[in-house]
Amino acid sequence: MLLLYSHLYIVFICWVDIQTGAALESSSKPPIYRNKDISISPEDKEVVNGQEEKAFSLVDQLDPEKSSPGIWNSDSNVITPSDEKKGDPINVPKEESRDIRVPEGKSSSKKAEDVDLVVAAPISSVNKSSPLEGKEYKNSTISAGNQACNYAIGKWVEDDRRPLYSGFECKQWLSPMWACRLTQRTDFAYEKFQWQPKNCKMDEFTGSNFLRRMQDKTLAFIGDSLGRQQFQSLMCMITGGKESPDVTSVGWKYGLVKARGALRPDGWAYWFPGTNTTILYYWSASLCDLEPLNSTNPTTDYAMHLDRPPAFLRRFLNKFDVLVLNTGHHWNRGKLKANRWVMHVGGVPNTDSKIAEIGGAKNLTIHSIVKWVDSQLPKYPSLKAFYRTISPRHFFNGDWNTGGSCDNTTPLSDGKEVLKDESLDPVAVAAVKGTRVKLLDITASSQLRDEGHISRYSIRATPGMQDCLHWCLPGIPDMWNEILFAQL
Ligand SMILES: *[C@@H]1O[C@H](CO)[C@@H](O)[C@H](O)[C@H]1NC(C)=O
Ligand SMILES: *[C@@H]1O[C@H](CO)[C@@H](O)[C@H](O)[C@H]1NC(C)=O
Ligand SMILES: *[C@@H]1O[C@H](CO)[C@@H](O)[C@H](O)[C@H]1NC(C)=O
Ligand SMILES: *[C@@H]1O[C@H](CO)[C@@H](O)[C@H](O)[C@H]1NC(C)=O
Ligand SMILES: *[C@@H]1O[C@H](CO)[C@@H](O)[C@H](O)[C@H]1NC(C)=O
């Protein structure tokens, strides 16, 4: 009956004019980038999806994917700029991922514009029965039920059936840096909770239920490392963390292959042959298109087209049945500067001072991508698009670089319930309003789980630095997938 849906759910994308697609396809071939000025430290290795990849020590310090401070460092970061690829992802040689050396960050004093999670003044709740949605949902009892409830409201309850997979297992999908069972951490109470929405019926998540529901379908996560966490979590949840030799890597179908010299591919795609289900993740930290300004210059600046969705999304949207978008933690001045991203709007450098502020740029991008996805839904009536709200950080007594920590080990010491019908991510709420893109609102519920972060146990964390942004897996992102499943 899900097939009856005629509307799309979308999470979050840059707005792009219809004509942009054609313009992009005709743009010049991307340059080759190499990690040439980054030293390799042989002991820095990471096993990703069964493949050992050499990691670069400098990258390790900066790269959000490397369990190092980079990702929650609000002044510096590394992003593999892959969105600018224009060529055929299968036949055209890809540029290698380019990791960028970042200058020593300034202090974290510019908080006002760099905060990743802004808990803004209360906003009115999303109207779940807008005329548009009412029409779209009329013929589906399931979706009508979903619309009547808000998955963001509810409580955490202890549940012996959690976690849904073991952090010792799931080596096929789970990055060791996020598998807290593999670290010195000894408290695992945080694994034992399930989210119970107040007014929504949730089917029990099982791998077979999920796959049955996703028969002949493709689910795509597009976003930053928190999106990658959700992707890995889902792969582990579906397989129960068990070795699954039948699940086939099909990244090549989407151009997701590791280029020579690259640290990793821009994403991963896996196919479950039993149900012909594909799950994929594509790395796009900013959810907008990145285009080298001088394609023959390896140290070129990038046009960061705030109002244009990533090329990958534009190219492959027609292949997706479910789309989950997210962004958030890469939006600060330091990261933009470090990545040499220059804001563009309408194809030209931005001159609007309101947009030039980080908050304004992020807002424009989120609104743009949601609007664009919404505009595509009539073409792809079976697509369900979600925008996932911001994942909260929990640095106490400092920030990531000033001794901030998340040492609490007692689950839910700050309460277990979310009662307010207003999201903690007003930007996302405003962006999806009036569109058929659905909000996957995980912010308030995750906000209660400060004990679930990697904390000090990150495998290669710099002593003194804690990761209070990413989550241990199994853990809180599993819940994001449970409420996603409930809405499919
Ligand atoms: C929600 O939309 C319905 C239908 O358009 C309208 O009757 C109702 O007043 C709206 N509620 C809010 C809180 O805006
Ligand atoms: C929705 O249901 C009504 C009444 O059952 C039917 O007339 C209409 O064609 C259906 N619309 C769609 C899009 O299936
Ligand atoms: C397998 O699933 C894809 C979508 O993920 C679909 O396009 C294709 O038609 C399916 N193949 C079969 C044989 O049903
Ligand atoms: C592009 O970069 C190359 C190599 O650095 C340089 O020679 C060329 O002048 C640049 N082109 C423009 C238009 O700036
Ligand atoms: C966010 O962007 C939208 C669309 O451009 C705009 O209407 C809205 O006013 C912006 N909100 C803020 C807080 O800047």
Automatic annotation (TrEMBL):
Positions of the Trichome birefringence-like C-terminal domain: 204-486
Keyword Transmembrane helix carried by entry: yes
Bias type Basic and acidic residues, positions: 82-104
Residue ranges, annotated region (Disordered): 61-113
Topology relative to the membrane: Single-pass membrane protein
Signal peptide: 1-23
Name of protein: Trichome birefringence-like N-terminal domain-containing protein
Organism: Vitis rotundifolia (Muscadine grape)
